User: Which sequence fits this backbone?
């Protein structure tokens, strides 16, 4: 076994190239606000610009095929890119995007040749930002129960309905969504999956007022919106996977969203917590010397290590072609539940300093306040913890002789 | 990065699994666990002939010179039984302690016979207050003529009753150093008493005026003995964790099967989400323990400082096996409490191993130190 990438001389050479390039190309003033809601238009545009530069090099979606605008690199190079971005305090992509990781990955699996050639290059080159539109007022955990409709009209579909918990602040270029294409057909055989330009007439975006937007740490979007479709006319070309085949397409991004892709990066909040406790005193001693705080910090450390190792396992499985079953939803379940436990530990360690981003009293420039809010909220996006357990049960085959298979990945 | 086993490790895994199924079926394990029935000698003899006991003993001392991950694979499969010792206590902990701190003569004298199972040397460390720290050792070594005499009482000695030799932690009255003394378990003055009840192969060992000389002291002197033991413990713990993982894996499989075959209210019980929760919690405990254990084994194999991973693995692994058993009992309800079903073999083991080589609280404190908090 080997728990870390072994770098070949060629990779180290690549790392030097990436380092030098990043030094020249990361726009100044790119910072992670504690709560992504504080991302300004100017900062966002800098990130988009950096995304386009990465896209030009093929480093934005480095493992995607070059013929679709990706970098055509293998996982060894992707790791180096992720590591170098992380050491620069960034993620790739450097902004919230549901295009490359989820939407694009689904088009790769289910799109026609023509659709792939049309939709993928702008995504993989960073020319467009994409949102996912899945939940509806009546369809949360039961996603297949969506009520919005797409009715065939000549060469087009006419879409009507309402989507919630969508996207981010500062807009997008494309939206992908799941709607009913056949009101008579059976569940799971009645849906269509569409890739839609966001500027079509009839689309209205309205921000939601939420405690925090949730989402994965580092990839939080800041804002979530309600999106209304009012007789939006969409060409049939934008339907991916075929008429009434939308659920099939959804299984791909749901699988990825449920954690099957895995991660190799560290938990930034934990690093910041440890740093804060080392550098700040309580009763004239570093917080780390307080026996109660030590105990809780170790709890936090153990919990993040468990999540890190299971995400590492998933990353390895995904990139070495090992068939996954329950592992994706398991990592998602543990990341979320342990994240919630962690927010309790942070409250124990820091007290009310964990509850304010006041510049004088708030701990760690507001990062702890944001995590305190996110703990309970982040357990629901991308499938609630209960839904993750339902999927695990089916995949394990608890009480069933036939085990459900994982969604198709490229 | 590669989290798969090598082809050789896969072969070892298959071979050990087959061995455990053949030599240690549930009936045999129950017979060994029974306080009234005689322990069959056959399976242990078979185990000693496999050569596996020497997996971590270097080839120059008659062992296999395997990697820590190899040992993890072996002991994970033995843990599925759970096949009782003395294997980890002897061929891993005691053997590694001799490797860490023994003289060349001591290595030559003991290690080859430990690899074959002829010598079953068990480390007798803890006393009545069950601590694993140097300060907890009270048993004394008092100078007596050319040698010295040992006096005190060891308690909660894992595998103590099946030892041929003891590796006994003793405090020198002269220097106050804690060292390790090798004494035959049948020396006059030694009284071993297996502890009754829910304890798993734990003994109290009274040591009264047992004489020894300096050739029996690890490394020839008391100073440095305890440090050698601690270094050996740090290498033994991930192997022990793999053994606990094997136990959790076995009862996880048992629980999934039971969720399919046991019907109540006209349906398999696994169709109930309350029951599914128990199985999922079990699997989460198992996987957390598995990957913390194997990461620690990997660090040992590549010679990296593994202190943080070792303490992490033991804290997670001991809690994991303990909790896994509880979840399995929730799935099985009354059936799980029946000795003949076999689940209680693991439940019993999980409680004793929770404490063996330090309980989770101890390792959490050590982890805080290792992290530089």
Assistant:
């Amino acid at each position: 076994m080997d728990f870390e990438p072994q770098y070949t001389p060629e990779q180290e050479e690549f790392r030097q190239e990436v380092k030098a390039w990043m030094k020249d190309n990361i726009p100044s003033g790119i910072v992670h606000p504690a709560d992504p809601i504080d991302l300004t238009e100017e900062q966002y545009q800098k990130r988009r610009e950096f995304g386009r530069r990465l896209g030009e090099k093929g480093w934005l979606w480095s493992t995607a095929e070059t013929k679709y605008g990706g970098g055509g690199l293998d996982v060894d190079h992707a790791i180096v890119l992720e590591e170098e971005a992380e050491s620069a305090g960034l993620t790739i992509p450097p902004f919230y995007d549901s295009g490359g990781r989820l939407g694009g990955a689904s088009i790769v699996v289910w799109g026609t040749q023509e659709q792939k050639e049309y939709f993928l290059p702008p995504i993989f080159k960073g020319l467009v930002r994409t949102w996912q539109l899945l939940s509806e007022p009546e369809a949360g955990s039961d996603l297949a129960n969506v009520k919005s409709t797409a009715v065939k009209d000549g060469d087009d579909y006419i879409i009507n309905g309402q989507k919630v918990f969508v996207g981010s602040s500062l807009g997008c270029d494309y939206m992908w969504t799941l709607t009913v294409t056949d009101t008579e057909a059976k569940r799971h055989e009645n849906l269509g999956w569409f890739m839609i330009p966001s500027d079509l007439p009839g689309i209205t975006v309205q921000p939601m007022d939420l405690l925090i937007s949730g989402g994965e740490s580092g990839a939080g979007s800041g804002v979530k919106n309600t999106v209304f479709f009012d007789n939006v006319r969409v060409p049939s070309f934008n339907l991916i996977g075929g008429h009434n085949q939308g659920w099939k397409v959804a299984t791909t991004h749901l699988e990825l969203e449920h954690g099957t892709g895995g991660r190799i990066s560290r938990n930034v909040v934990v690093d910041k917590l440890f740093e804060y406790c080392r550098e700040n005193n309580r009763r004239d001693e570093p917080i780390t010397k307080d026996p109660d705080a030590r105990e809780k910090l170790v709890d936090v450390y153990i919990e993040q290590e468990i999540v890190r190792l299971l995400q590492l396992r998933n990353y390895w499985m995904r990139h070495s072609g090992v068939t996954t079953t329950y592992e994706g939803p398991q990592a998602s379940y543990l990341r979320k539940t342990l994240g919630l436990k962690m927010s309790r530990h942070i409250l124990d360690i820091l007290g009310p300093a964990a509850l304010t981003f006041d510049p004088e009293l708030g701990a760690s420039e507001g990062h702890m306040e944001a995590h305190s809010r996110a703990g309970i909220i982040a357990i629901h996006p991308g499938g609630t913890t209960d839904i993750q357990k339902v999927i695990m049960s089916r995949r394990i085959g608890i009480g069933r002789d036939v085990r459900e298979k994982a969604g198709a990945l490229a | 990065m590669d989290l798969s086993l090598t082809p050789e490790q896969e072969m070892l895994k298959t071979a050990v699994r087959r061995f455990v199924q053949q030599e240690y079926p549930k009936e045999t394990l129950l017979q060994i666990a029974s306080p009234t029935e005689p322990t069959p000698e056959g399976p242990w003899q078979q185990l000693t002939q496999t050569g596996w006991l020497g997996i971590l003993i270097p080839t120059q001392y008659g062992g296999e010179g395997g990697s820590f991950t190899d040992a993890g694979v072996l002991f994970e499969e033995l843990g599925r039984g759970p096949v009782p010792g003395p294997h980890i206590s002897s061929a891993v902990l005691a053997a590694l302690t001799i490797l860490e701190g023994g003289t060349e003569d001591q290595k030559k004298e003991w290690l080859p016979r430990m690899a074959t199972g002829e010598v079953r040397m068990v480390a007798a460390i803890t006393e009545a207050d069950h601590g694993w720290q140097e300060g907890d050792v009270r048993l004394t070594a008092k100078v007596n003529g050319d040698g010295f005499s040992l006096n005190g009482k060891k308690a909660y000695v894992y595998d103590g009753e099946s030892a041929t030799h003891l590796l006994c932690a003793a405090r020198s009255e002269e220097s106050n150093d804690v060292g390790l003394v090798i004494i035959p378990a049948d020396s006059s003055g030694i009284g071993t008493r297996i502890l009754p009840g829910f304890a798993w192969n734990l003994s109290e060992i009274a040591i009264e005026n047992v004489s020894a000389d300096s050739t029996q002291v690890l490394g020839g002197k008391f100073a440095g003995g305890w440090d050698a033991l601690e270094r050996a413990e740090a290498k033994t713990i991930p192997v022990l964790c793999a053994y606990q993982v094997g136990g959790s894996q076995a009862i996880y499989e048992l629980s999934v099967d039971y969720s399919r075959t046991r019907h109540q209210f006209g349906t398999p019980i696994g169709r109930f989400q309350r029951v599914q929760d128990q199985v999922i919690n079990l699997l989460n405990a198992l996987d957390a323990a598995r990957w913390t254990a194997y990461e620690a084994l990997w660090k040992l194999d590549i010679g990296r400082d593994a202190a943080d991973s070792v303490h992490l693995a033991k804290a997670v692994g001991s809690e994991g096996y303990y909790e896994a058993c509880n979840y399995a009992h929730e799935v099985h309800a009354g059936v799980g409490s029946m000795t003949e079903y076999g689940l209680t073999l693991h439940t019993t083991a999980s409680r004793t191993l929770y404490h063996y080589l330090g309980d989770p609280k101890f390792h959490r404190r050590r982890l805080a130190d290792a992290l530089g908090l």
Remarks:
- The CA atoms of residues 69 and 297 of chain B lie 5 Å apart.
